[in-house]
Every structure is written in structure tokens, then in C-alpha cells.
Amino acid sequence: MPVSDQAFVTLATNDIYCQGALVLGQSLRNQRATRRLVVLITPQVSNLLRVILSKVFDEVIEVNLMDSADYIHLAFLKRPELGVTLTKLHCWTLTHYSKCVFLDADTLVLSNIDELFDRTEFSAAPDPGWPDCFNSGVFVFQPSLETHGLLLQHATDHGSFDGADQGLLNSFFSSWSTADIHKHLPFIYNLSSNTAYTYSPAFKRFGSSVKVVHFLGPTKPWNYKYNPQTGSVLEEGSGLANQHQTSFLNLWWKIYQHSILPLYEGFRDEEEHASPGHTAAVEELGAISAVGSSQPWPAEGPVEQTVVTDDIPPSPKGSHAEDTIGWPELETSAGVRCDPLSPPSPPCADSSGTQSTSPADKAEGGPSPEILEPSQEPPVDVTGDPSPQDALEVDLAMSVFEISIEEKVKELSPEEERRKWEEGRIDYMGKDAFARIQEKLDRFLQ
Ligand SMILES: O=c1ccn([C@@H]2O[C@H](COP(=O)(O)OP(=O)(O)O[C@H]3O[C@H](CO)[C@@H](O)[C@H](O)[C@H]3O)[C@@H](O)[C@H]2O)c(=O)[nH]1
Ligand SMILES: [Mn+2]
Q: Where is this region: Disordered (predicted)?
């Protein structure tokens, strides 16, 4: 039975972390999650990614620290280093839900975890590095503007001992390690992907019951390159720790390859009649679709529709993530193609499941109006008009043998370029390499 006042929530502040959020959301779908799927994003996330996110998530909610009420602003100004942290805390403002499970965008769900909703705030699993602290990559919480306010106050007054949300949340929910064992989630709900290496006998014994893998640490699945032919990540230069970690990475990429990449595929048609003002994004789309269309990724099984939009129940797939192989058309439930390069038409906006209201608009009851911060803001259409900054921040490089996701090097204006040169910041290996300059000269001389 779907429970509509409860939700799985994640966060992505840029297009790169969006790739993680997409795989996480898809993995929840694959495991037939019965709660709503919500992703919090910030203004940096491109319009294309917002549209893609809305194919997997029921709600895409933009949060913006700077537009928020004064006390948030204050906390942010006093503690600028807590930027992403304070953004994560926004999950407490989702008061149209009675209970939520937060999952980092670098987690992967391997089996159904709906039972986590039997737990209460604040439940989390031990951190592998310091088990008296919880890891803040997976936690059960109860949205409340009052708690949100208290957390921000705590951030303003005390900061965070690790400079991020985990330190802050541990000092706020400081009785976690001693007060109530029910609030200790078993480690299988937040297994750090390199734990198999640190305590391999335990992994041998309990590994098969793992439900959530967390790729915590500096190297994320999207930092690896993947071979779609062999179905495995390329080890070169990535320093893979062990075979278990590799199989979790492969699983992540398998979902990315079969269920996420096809979501970009449907934008191919837009390429032809897109206006010239949008070349950056269009080039990107071309790169995305060109290989996919002429050379579909090896599919191992029946081609199924895996696109899930608002109000469509999770796709009735097998219970394993591997079962989901798809090559879906990017169409919404209304059968309307959404063009990320032009303002969304009403059917697109309707069927995408994207929220155009801020979370607290739907809040009922709750604390006094003066702390109902987001509701005073005008509604934000998260898939609104594209602007020059809307170009993708990621490069999805694809060939038959290799898929990779890379952060796009930001295009600098000629003035910024000149300043960089003058300051001696020259990209000898990249675009200032002799070969590039030679190309430019050749073009000029022709
Ligand atoms: O640029 C960023 C960085 C982070 N995030 C979000 O914040 C989460 C936490 O960041 P992550 O890179 O996953 O941190 P971890 O490597 O998991 O490191 C640990 O430390 C973090 C900071 O305390 C905690 O948030 C994590 O839960 C904890 O596992 C991510 O999953 C995303 O959801 C973004 O959206 N954009
Ligand atoms: Mn994480």
C-alpha cells in the first residue's frame, strides 16, 4: 500500500551529484519503494537535469539558502563553510510529509527498505570510522520547521566539528549512541562500500543481507569509467580497493547504463529544431544521443518501459536491481515529449511530477507563521525558462567501450581567459596545450 505522507528524500546541488540521485531513485523504484521519492536541488542544477530527475522522482524541490528566512541567512553568513550542510538540513522543511528517510545521493538501494518507516526520529547507522557517531548518509527523520530552526540555531551557535552535516547532526542528536537502541539502524542499511575490505569476515557472514550501499569518501561511482561491454568499471587509475567494492560499483553503473542513460535519449529529436542560442546544451545532447541511437547498449533481457512519472506506481519489476533493463522512450505519462530547451508546456509541466511550489506551501498546522520560511517566497518553477547558465555541468562521454561522467570545464569569458594568462594560471595539459594553440592557428590561417 503506497503511503503518500511519507517519503524517501535525497539531495543534489549540482549536475554531477544528480547522476547519483538518479541511480539512487531508480534503485528505490526497482525495489518497489512504496513511499514518495523526493529530490532537493539547488539553483545550480541545469534545466535538463531537472526534467530528467522528474522522470524518476515524484517531487523535485528547489531549495535556495539565500532566498530563505533571515535566520537561515544568518546561519549561512556566519558559517559559510557549512553551505551544503545547511542545504541538507532543508529536508526538515518537508512538512507535507509526516516521516521521511534521507539517503545521500551516493547511496544505492539493493532491496526494499520500507520497514525503515517503522523507526522514529532520529535513527541512523553507526559511522564505520567512529561507531559512537552515526553516519548521516541514511537517516529517519520527522519534518518539522521547529526542528529545522533549532538545527540552524545550533549550526550558528556551535558550527560543526567536522565542518559538515554529520558533525552538526551528531552534536544535535547527541544521545543517539546511548539513549535508544531502536534508533541504531543495523549496518546493513548503510554499508560503506569499502567496509568489505576493513572487516572481510563480517562481510562474508552478513554481506548478502546488505540493503543499502554507501559510496562514502572522496571517490564516487561517477568518478570511475565504465565498460558497457564487460559491465564493469575500469580499474585504471581509480585504485579499486577490493572485489566487493567493484561489484557494488558495477551494479551502480549497470543501473546508470540501462535505466538512466536512456532518459537522455528521448531528447535527441529536440536537437534538430533547437534554436541557435542553445548550442552548448544541444551539443551535449547530441553527444548523449549520437552513440546511443546508432549503437544501443548491450541489453540483457526484454526491453521494458522503466520511466516512472508522478502518480504511476513503481514499475513492477523483479526484486533485484539487475532485473531492470530498459531502453525507454523519454515520454511522460501523457505521452508528451518535454523539451528542456524551451519553457515547459502545460502538459509537460503537469505530467512531469515536478513541483512548482515550495514545500511549506503544503504545510498544515505546524509552528507559527513567522518561522514558516519558504512559504513567503513566490512559487518556484523548477523546470522554468532556460538561461545561458542552464547548460549541463557534466560531460557524458560515451563510446562502445567506455562511458564516463565528467565535470564540465566552465567556459570562461575572453576577459577571464586573459586574466588567467596574466596571472600565470595556464592549462598546459588542456586547452592551452601547444596542440590546441596550433589548431587555433591553423584554423586562423586557413
Ligand atoms: O557537492 C555536493 C556535495 C554533497 N552533496 C549532497 O550531500 C551528500 C553528502 O556528501 P557526500 O559527498 O556523499 O559525503 P560522504 O562522502 O558520504 O561523507 C560523509 O560526510 C558528509 C559530510 O558530513 C555527510 O554528509 C555524509 O553523509 C557522510 O557519509 C551527498 O550524497 C549529496 O546528497 C551534494 O549534493 N553536492
Ligand atoms: Mn555520502
A: 292-390
